[in-house]
Amino acid sequence: MKLLALCVLMVVNLHAQLLTESTKKERRSMVEAGGFLSFSSYKESQMPGVYVGYWYGFPIEENKAHLEFGLNFYHSTSRYDFEYGKNGEFYHVRSKEFLLNIGLRMVKEYPVQNKNLEWVSELSMHNLFFNGNGIPGDKPEKDNGNAIYVDTNTISIASLRIGQGIRFWKYNFGLGIQGSYMPFRLLQKNAVPSGFNSFSIETSIHFKF
After folding, report:
1. CA-CA distance, 116 to 94, in Å (whole number)?
2. Ramachandran category for residue 152: left, alpha or beta (phi over 0 → left; psi -120 to 50 → alpha)
3. Tell me: the pLDDT tens digits for 63-116?
4. 3-state secondary structure the chain
């Protein structure tokens, strides 16, 4: 959770800097929504899900490209079933799929007649949330007697997300498809079992304003 909070603060800080440095003409916001299907050997079934998100675009001068900073929320009825490791102990987890993705994209633009084709490269922090009933929470190391500790019964498993995709635009409306890889074992080797890394396919619609 500390890693997630740090990522949120970094994105907010970068977004604020870009807003300050850019002119009104350069400011472009984008909302997106779509469906996704992620593949993992620790799923009971591969059920499609939906997602929605907000991204802010910042042009790169003298280059038909721009950066995007933003986040997406994902949910599907797929159920994970695995043994979660914490402090040397293992706990059985069986929970639906909830995801929060925060990061950046490099977007290269290719004009085609009155349309626009974009190649998207994404690097972000991908967070998978589970129901953590029966798993002890992280209590503060120091308790002065005045602190209030709240256990949300939620597990957060973080991973990098590496994605490549294409988007087709006409005016302010776009359609996209992207493939992404999440190496959960890279950051959570002791928390998740071998082979927990996953791959996903996302289809999306976009609107700029």
Report:
1. 43
2. alpha
3. 789 999 999 999 999 999 999 999 899 999 999 999 999 999 999 999 888 889
4. CHHHHHHHHHHHHHHHHHHHHCCHHHCEEEEEEEEEEEECCCECCCCCEEEEEEEEEEECCCCCEEEEEEEEEEEEEEEEEEEEEECCEEEEEEEEEEEEEEEEEEEEEEEECCEEEEEEEEEEEEEEEEECCCCCCCCCCCCCCCCCCCCCCEEEEEEEEEEEEEEEEECCEEEEEEEEEECHHHHCCCCCCCCCCEEEEEEEEEEEC
Beta-carbon contacts of 122 under 8 Å, excluding residues fewer than 6 positions away, are 103, 104, 105, 106, 161, 162, 163, 164, 165, 178, 180
Whether 181 and 197 have beta carbons less than 8 Å apart is answered as yes
The pTM score is 0.79
Tokens encoding 60 = 């790169």
Q: How many CB atoms lie within 10 A of CB 206?
A: 20
Write down the residue that tokens 């709240």 correspond to. 150
To 5 degrees, how large is the angle CA 16–CA 118–CA 124?
Answer: 45
Please check the confidence at residue 13 and state whether its pLDDT lies above 80: no
